[in-house]
Amino acid sequence: MQLKPNRRTAGYILAGITLFAVCLYLRFPGEALTDYLKAAARSHQTLLSLEPIRASFPPGLKAANVTVGFPDRPEATFQADVLSIRPRGLSLIKGELAFLMAAKGYGGEASGRVDFGRRFSLRGPIHAEATLRDVRIERCAWLREALARRVTGTLRGSLSLGGPIGAMKNMTGSVDFTLTNGIFPLVDGFLNFKNIDFSRIEGKISWQSGTMKITHLTLTSDLLRASLKGNILLADEFRGSQIDLTGTIEMPSQGNRRLTLNISGTLDDPKTRLM
């Protein structure tokens, strides 16, 4: 006899929660929240453009045509056709802020999560992970600006980083990526080539204490095969980072001729030496 009232009560509670969720979704103040975020971005010298934010299910936020840029660096921008963010419920119960994210843009998509180290705070150290799939890197203005050249191709890979929010050189992290079917522009006609049409570039990279360690970086093309490893000393401006790389080049078109390669200088102005 006790089951009927309990079921009825649970039904009322569930119906109330559902009604509240529907009302919140229908009456979500998306335009007000969007205007607030734009104003907050301007106060930090950042340009933010996006369509009005919408509530999504599972509970979270979704926005379309998101663009983030900087007044003094118009090429260093981030764009997403669709961006969604939702809290990770189990973490919130324990007082830890963690968010799951998903985005579509540059012809591909990305997913990941961000965990904040301080309880109930968006400041302090973070840990972030992301997975990229089928991203056309020539569409990424910020990547062209960072690499100081227009590399093309389709990118897949994973990224993790952690530490205090700020410059990448003050954080720790790792990248594992594969870039396929693209073009890599060369500086000053290296080996009399202006560009290399590659079928595959693979890399495994980590960084800590301001130093990026390249443990595996290979390029495969019809013209040559190259393998590099070494260190990059990170600068505040990534393209100004100092390079110290060594490796080998094999040239199938010249009877598998093998050369030793040293690269120094900066990402913006690399100096190559063949032996």
Question: What are the SSEs and their pairings?
Answer:
Layout: H1 3-26, H2 30-43, E1 47-49, E2 54-56, E3 60-70, E4 73-87, H3 89-93, E5 98-105, E6 108-116, E7 126-136, H4 141-147, E8 154-163, E9 172-185, E10 195-208, E11 211-221, E12 225-233, E13 242-251, E14 257-265, E15 270-274
Antiparallel strand pairs: 1-3, 2-3, 3-4, 4-5, 5-6, 6-7, 7-8, 8-9, 9-10, 10-11, 11-12, 12-13, 13-14, 14-15
Note the main attributes of this structure.
15-stranded antiparallel sheet; elongated; 18% helix; alpha+beta; 275 residues
| Largest pleated sheet | 15 strands, antiparallel
Count of helix runs: 4
Could you tell me the mean pLDDT? 83
C-alpha termini separation: 90 Å
Helix fraction by DSSP (H/I, runs of at least 4): 10-25%
Structural class: alpha+beta
Q: How many β-strands, per DSSP?
A: 15
Q: SSE order, as H and E?
A: HHEEEEHEEEHEEEEEEEE
Question: Would you give an account of this structure?
Answer:
This protein has helices at residues 3-26, 30-43, 89-93, 141-147; strands spanning 47-49, 54-56, 60-70, 73-87, 98-105, 108-116, 126-136, 154-163, 172-185, 195-208, 211-221, 225-233, 242-251, 257-265, 270-274. It is an alpha+beta fold. It contains four helices and 15 strands. The model has no long low-confidence stretch (mean pLDDT 83). The protein has a 15-stranded antiparallel beta sheet that branches.
Short description:
This protein has helices spanning 3-26, 30-43, 89-93, 141-147; strands at residues 47-49, 54-56, 60-70, 73-87, 98-105, 108-116, 126-136, 154-163, 172-185, 195-208, 211-221, 225-233, 242-251, 257-265, 270-274.
